[in-house]
Amino acid sequence: MNLHTARRVVLVCAMTLVTVDALAAIPVCVDVHARGISSADAEGMTALVESEVRRLATHTLATGDECEATLVVELVEVALDGGKKRVATAYLDGQTPHRRELGSAETFSEHLEYLVSAALGTDPRRLMADDVALEDTIALVENRPMAGEMLYGVEVGQATAFLASGASFSPSLAVRVRRGLGPFHIGARLRAAFLPVEPVRGGDPVPTVNVALEPEFAWFVSPDAAISFYLAAAIGISVIRFDGFVGDEEQRLVDFGVHSTVRIGTEFLRTADFRVDAFASVSLPWSATDSENSPLVDEWTPTMEVGFGVAF
């Protein structure tokens, strides 16, 4: 799961946690009208409506000046088309009424839950409160500190050292640790290139070992996409070893130095549990490779590397 997806999950969960219990219940009065039925049945209707209101967490029963809204429920029995029909209606403060026609075998209580829930569910006060709570929750989640993502990777590639005598190729292996925060990643990379060959008498010096440690900073163009191009920069320290001959004497030169690296690449499968990376980099040393103990090499030795990696 990537960072953007994780934030969306957090946002959805947080919005889900905004329940009606977290909002103040709106005081509502009940006004019941029954036409064509007995007064005893009308009193029973009133009791049923009040009981239904008590079941809802969005509103609470009130009387007199405490009321912020009035729920009107009507049951009318009329003679129509040679028969009698009963119609139940509920509305809140002049809002659009909700109406149900009762069948001959149906009772008022069977439709009461729908009528009361529908009428109170369209209460403008409640809808406004829900919107405010939702906006507050979204703002809280969006403004919360972002959590970083740790990635651990292994890379293989080919390193090319450019010498005055030509290019020298050697396989490379690296481990990379980084932490991502949105489009930015910071981390460190340890790379080693080995060329296990013996120098040739009369031949050119050979860079047999090249080890570098690089703290790096990376920027991803599309941090939320499954595939993203990125650009990285690093300043690291390196150890390079040359083997060769000076005259008839075999010598070994080991030099420590500082270098700058620029890396470009494309990362794939960024929405999966692992990521695949294709990259190319160029490292430029700050000084020439040389040694007081050996005249074997005294030149500037930039390095280029191409490879693939996987991160978890």
Task: Walk me through what this model shows.
This protein is 20% helix and 53% strand. With 312 residues, it is α+β, with helices and mostly antiparallel strands. It folds into two domains: 3-142, Ribosome hibernation promotion factor-like (Double Stranded RNA Binding Domain); 149-311, Porin (Beta Barrel), CATH 2.40.160.20. The chain has an eight-stranded antiparallel beta barrel with strand order 6-7-8-9-10-11-12-15. Strand 3 and strand 4 form a beta hairpin. The longest helix is centred in the middle third of the chain and has 19 residues, at 124-142.
Radius of gyration: 38 Å
Low-confidence stretches: 14-22
Fill in the CATH topology of the largest domain: Porin
Total domain units:
2
Could you tell me the mean pLDDT?
84
State the end-to-end CA separation: 11 Å
- In CATH, the architecture of the largest domain is Beta Barrel
Number of helices: 4
- Please outline the major beta sheet: 8 strands, antiparallel, barrel
How many individual β-strands? Answer: 15
Strand content: over 45%
**Widest sheet: strand ordering:** 6-7-8-9-10-11-12-15
Helix content: 10-25%
Structural class label: alpha+beta
> How does the overall form come out from the CA principal axes?
rod-shaped
